[in-house]
Amino acid sequence: MKTENDPVTIAAKPKVAFFDFACCEGCQLQVANIGETLLDVLGAIDVVEFREVMSEKYDKDYDVVIIEGSITDHHAEERIKKIRARAKVLIAYGACAATGGVNGMKNSFDLDEIRKSVYGDDYKLFDSTPTRPLHQVVKVDYTINGCPIYPPELIEVLKCALRGLPYTVPDNPVCAECKLNENVCMYERGVACLGPWTKAGCNSWCVNNGNICYGCRGEVKNPAKNANDVIGKYNLKPELIKNKFDMYNKCKEADTNGNRK
Amino acid sequence: MNYHILKKDELDGFIKKLAGKMKVCAPVAKGHNNFAFEEVTSAGGIALSYIPTILPPKKYFMPPREKLLDFDISEGKPKDTASLEAGETAIFGVHTCDLAGIQCLNMVFSERPRDYNYLLRKEKVFIIGLECGGYCDEHASCALVGNHYPNGGYDLFFTDLGDRFIIHVNTQKGEELVESFCLAKAASADMIALDKVREGKKAVFKNEIGVEPGKLPEIFAKGMEKKVWHDIGERCVSCGNCTNVCPTCYCFDMADTINLDMKTGFRTRTWDSCQFETFAAVAGGENFREERAHRQRHRLYRKFKYPLDKFYRAFCTGCGRCTRACMAKINLKDTLKALAAESK
User: Fold this and answer.
1) SS3 of B186, please?
2) Are B232 and B330 in contact (CB under 8 A)?
3) B108 found inside a domain
4) pLDDT (tens digit, 9 = 90+) per residue, A77-99?
5) CATH topology assigned to domain A15-163
6) Confidence (pTM)
7) Is there a single domain that holds both residue B244 and residue B98?
8) Do B238 and A8 touch (CB under 8 A)?
9) Contact residues on chain B for A6, CB-CB shorter than 8 A
């Protein structure tokens, strides 16, 4: 029996695998951008599959799978279900997996129209479904938002997953972190930014570097119902803000509960 | 009466000499009429004429993110070591509204249980105030709360007398600095000039909302159910800008972070905001201030009602930052006026 004097022991290194679906693989590339911390990460986990960096395959169950990309055809749907069946913990990794990301723009159009424009006259030979983020297809245990993901958040989520603790995605707007970083507000510069409606957790990464927030982390659970004041104060058009949001958040319309984390 | 003189063309030498002793921070222009306190090494980069900075100087007393302790759980009994990162810092050019803000925070963090990280860091901060000759802009309400004149809370205080600054020395630390810099004593002509500046300000600074400050406690005491809270709640974005930029908001959240070795870690505190959706949420799914209207109302009661009951002073400094930073045009002066009008 475990007593309080027992040292904390970590079981054998968890088997972790990376997989990708419809995406640019940029979030997986971010793993390489972690820098020195990567050595600590590799000390804590055992990477058994990661197509970008290794050719080995693994035939047993996974402790943790980290999935980049969204589900955009029937084959992908079957494949993610098979992966899910073999994984104890599934992490939706990056905007495409977490919210549908830019792939969701496809859902603004008629499916056949899109297939025609991509595949031409033989489009019927190429299977395609409306874009779905992972949680609309399988159970997701952890979500790492962002396009690309914010590397320190990957580390935090990974640590939670390894310890079996929940990770709470901050439900404050990006402004909350942006102010702490003392950036000059993008609206003061005369540029529309999605920070006031977008979930924080990225440490206002884009604005710190002179860019606007594109809403890649998805909307806060309860965004301002009446944004007319914001829009009015800066002479914006409501359609402009909505269009900007659609770039990353089109798939949200298919969320039945409407307030996913 | 301990006043000294610094000629304006000697300011650069003053800042450079000070920067040789400690880190010097001062208001710096960030473009688009935004300013921030940042480290300077000469007077060149200092914006002597500035509107309140994006973040108030509270960031030097309670950093937005601060490590409180390191811990180690590798042995049976967890071990912890307190952590304090603080170096000698001078803040130059602090306006009277922000001096008042620091005074408010001093009261809060001196209460038992004392906040040692705040109090120990405060000992390392040397404060040089700077008098405002006129309003920074239309959003300030410093006269309402009586913060347009200095009321202490500084080591040295600069007032512009045209070609020179007259410096009020308020502390032993200030005295030592002025002596080591060999600044001349003020003459009676300088004192007359200072009186003239102060007298001139009387005509400039007027109660900004046309409501007697003495009546505000009663207005708030009866104001819980007024319509104005609903109105501003409808507009609020819950971005937390108003509290993050407030010189007297001090709420924070604490979190433990474990390192990848899963044995060691650290505890941090980060500024929190009563405007956030999750601020008053508790286990079981209850949220005590679910409505934006209730959260906005709470914010203003924390400025004009509760601290008056507890500390006998308003925790609004009149700096106007909440109005400037609001994404939804929620205006402090208008809110107070509307509340007063409803209470008639």
Assistant:
1) coil
2) yes
3) yes
4) 999 999 999 999 999 999 999 99
5) Rossmann fold (3.40.50)
6) 0.93
7) no
8) no
9) 76
Torsion of CA A202, A207, A211, A212, to 10 degrees: 80
Are B260 and A163 an interchain contact pair (Cβ–Cβ within 8 Å)?
Answer: no
What are the tokens at B278? 């999750």
User: Chain B interface residues facing chain A, Cβ-Cβ under 8 Å?
Assistant: 30-34, 36, 54-55, 59, 64-65, 73-77, 234-241, 244-245, 257-263, 270-271, 273, 276-278, 325, 327-330
Judging contacts by C-beta atoms under 8 Å, the chain A residues touching residue B327 are: 175, 187, 196, 229-230, 233
Q: If DSSP codes are grouped into helix, strand and coil, which group holds residue B73?
A: coil
- SS3 for B160? strand
Give residue B247's domain range.
Answer: 213-342
The domain spans of chain A are 15-163, 174-254
Residues A233, B236: C-beta atoms closer than 8 Å: no
**C-beta atoms of A229 and B325 within 8 A:** no
Average pLDDT of adjacent 10-residue blocks, chain B of 344 residues: 93 98 98 98 97 98 97 94 96 98 98 96 98 97 97 98 97 97 96 97 97 94 96 93 98 94 95 95 94 97 95 96 94 98 92
Question: pLDDT tens digit string along A10-27?
Answer: 457 999 999 999 999 999
A180 in contact with chain B, both atoms CB, cutoff 8 A = yes
Q: Residue B130 and residue B150: Cα distance in Å, rounded?
A: 9
Element of type H or E holding A86? helix A74-86
Count the neighbouring beta carbons within 10 Å of the beta carbon of residue B160: 16
Residue pairs spanning A and B at CB distance below 8 A: 119
Are B189 and B236 in a shared domain?
Answer: no
CB contact under 8 A, A172 and B257: no
What is d(CA B293, CA B335) in angstroms, rounded to the nearest whole number? 12
Domain count, chain B: 2
A11 to chain B, any CB pair closer than 8 A? The answer is no
